[in-house]
Amino acid sequence: MRVATLLCPLLIVSIAVSAGCNRSEPARQVDPAKTEQTGASREANPAKGLRIAVGGMITPKEGFAYYREFLDYLAHQLGEPVQYVDAENYDDINQKLKRGEIDGGFVCSGPYVDGKKEFGLELLVAPRAYGKTAYHAYIIVPKDSPARSLDDLKGKRFAFTDPLSNTGKLVPEYILKRKGQTPESFFGTVVYSGTHDKSISAVSQGLVDGASVDSLIWEYANRTRPELTAKTRIIQKSEPYAIPPFVVRPGIAPEIKQKLKSIMINAHTDPTGKAILDNMMIERFEQIDDKAYDSIRAMKRQTGKP
To answer: C-alpha distances in angstroms, 49 versus 34, 121, 252, 257?
Structure first.
């Protein structure tokens, strides 16, 4: 089996924002090595504030504009600056949280489980999207592919998202484990795209024969750019798993944690907050129990993950 990384410019997805989400300016790209204060907070005291990461793995590139708006909203409600922090991958976010370089972040379910075990990462809230606080892994193939199940992709080119991704790596690895296989023994070539939208693009263009992607991101693309997802076909949908949460580092001030939690849980009741959440395709944020992530922990154990 060959392992590669998708770096082709063709994999940069141009998921157009729908009419209800139009902006006069395109979302700006962020240097992963930098942080910046959100617009609403620039007049606040720069010595204070929160640093929050939004990984490029959990939202299509165009979705960053709305995460930025939401961080502006948090800054306004908190009365303190909020710094937007980009990250290259899931491990980067976890390491920044562990070292206290950031205070919170939108992370994947798998890295939350890892961070909770390794250094006490704290679960704050989780989004409700498409009517539930759960999501799935979609195994997708090009629309004209003859494949009808994962079994038909043996020896083929397959795209994972990130080594720590739940839907983009752990779930298909778990499915293969139950068949007595590993990604190395089953696929001919494995690539890591880095983000779910790049995996969707790779499949739609026939650059890979299949991929496992986050259902939330596929559904987002399906609503905003159906001509892209129309070039793909879902051949398998996993069981539901607890949705990627918003987390905070251990040791964050209790009063800040509680205030942040209250603002996020009530954002959908405020017209400004609701408008931003609608653009993010999030209905609201809710409190969620850590036990909801036990099925992911079980998968990790069964696939030999520490």
So the answer is: 16, 19, 12, 12
